[in-house]
Write a structure and sequence with these properties.
Two copies of one chain form a homodimer. With about 190 residues, chain A is an all-alpha fold. Chain A has one domain: Tetracycline Repressor, domain 2 (Orthogonal Bundle), CATH 1.10.357.10. The first copy, chain A, is about 70% helix and about 0% strand. Chain A is built from ten helices and no strands. In chain A, helix 4 runs antiparallel to helix 5. Chain A starts with 7 loop residues before the first helix and ends in an 8-residue tail after the last helix. The model of chain A has no long low-confidence stretch (mean pLDDT about 95). The structure holds a DNA duplex (30 and 30 nucleotides). Chains A, B: GO terms for molecular function: DNA binding. Chains A, B: Keywords: DNA-binding, Transcription, Transcription regulation. Chains A, B: It comes from Streptomyces guryensis.
Chain lengths: ~190, ~190
DNA sequence: CTAAGTTGCCTAAATGCTTTAGGCAAATGC
DNA sequence: GCATTTGCCTAAAGCATTTAGGCAACTTAG
């Protein structure tokens, strides 16, 4: 009996790769076992089950994405920072569609609170310090940016913007220009 | 043998209700059979299988949502129309989380092209006629609005905005104010 | 270096969802 | 009333999930 050297870490990482290949909701403990050339039951020592595996992949993706975003904004400010930050999200979604979908998994409140999700929120606030927003407008803006990054990435991955002009890259740049302009002139009071 | 009176229509509708109760990705042909008090195999005359069922629920949701959005914008223009339209999306997500998730299912290109998705795109363009955007800025704006509606609804359903101030309704209103302002002053050329 | 303990992977088995094949009975139409 | 279509059935095979219990291979202490 040869030991493959499984650990929770390695299982989750392989799960993330599998997600990128076949889609996050097609990730299965059985397929993972096949890839490790190991019996299914063996994985249950490292992962509580299918749901636990998915949650762990989600946490892993959130962490990885937060690391990338942090790298992207380091040493930048203002619009530069906004663009680098936004690009980190979009690029992650294009390079790792499965992990990106995983990062959007609904987590229960305690898990979410202990996840890298809070780093994402903090970084978004940091970006917004380059603009002149008072609380609670800053919170509204955090939610807007989250929605746009999340939504755009999701639609783009679903193929929503392919096969039609102008290309996605063009729209993305113009949307970021627009968001930058919006944040600089954020309407304090409802427009007439 | 009593006949229940199954049709594809009824099966799909029940599937949509099931999705709202247990979540779109927990929808199962078996559970549906249980609810109709019918054997599983019986459903396979009405639906090709699990994947087909999910796709049909997605198409149903897209249609229903398009109808609602169309009602919402009828007789309105400008910011009024924008808000009514956006609210239709958000309300649908809150009333029908499962169907709303279904509407975000990735469809293959031909299916998508034949779906109510194209009505959504057309309506979004109609909203934007109230603003002074030239092509291709209109397309960029369509994509931005799609991302925001999609993303906000998805994050809100995931519980992202609960348990923190200000409440989601407040943010939503301020975000729509901001989008309206943005569309009225859409930056034609990248800001410096 | 060996014995004891721990860990890693195994076999076995139950449960449940999916899907196909083929059959009988109820509704429908001539 | 009879034939056809349609609706739901039984049966069975395949695969994913999950738990229980076992043996072999590492690790560590004496």
């Amino acid at each position: 009996m040869v030991r493959v050297g499984l650990t929770t870490e390695r299982v989750v990482r392989a799960g993330a790769e599998l997600a990128d290949e076949v889609g996050f909701d097609q990730v299965t403990v059985s397929e993972l076992a096949r890839r490790f050339d190991v019996k299914v039951a063996s994985l249950y020592s490292h992962v509580k089950g299918s749901q636990d595996l998915r949650t762990r992949i989600a946490l892993f993706a959130l962490e990885e994405l937060a690391d990338r975003a942090a790298d992207a904004i380091a040493g930048r400010a203002g619009k530069d920072a906004l663009i680098a930050f936004a690009d980190a999200y979009r690029d992650y979604g294009r390079e790792h569609p499965g992990r990106s979908a995983a990062a959007r998994l609904r987590l229960d409140p305690e898990t979410a609170a202990a996840s890298a999700g809070v780093r994402h929120a903090r970084m978004t606030r940091a970006i917004l310090r380059g603009y002149d927003l008072t609380e609670p407008d800053q919170t509204h803006a955090v939610r807007l940016l989250g929605s746009v990054f999340h939504g755009y990435s999701s639609l783009e991955t679903a193929g929503g913007f392919s096969h039609s002009a102008p290309d996605s890259q063009e729209s993305w740049m113009r949307i970021l220009d627009a968001l930058d302009a919006l944040l600089r002139t954020w309407p304090t009071t409802p427009a007439p």
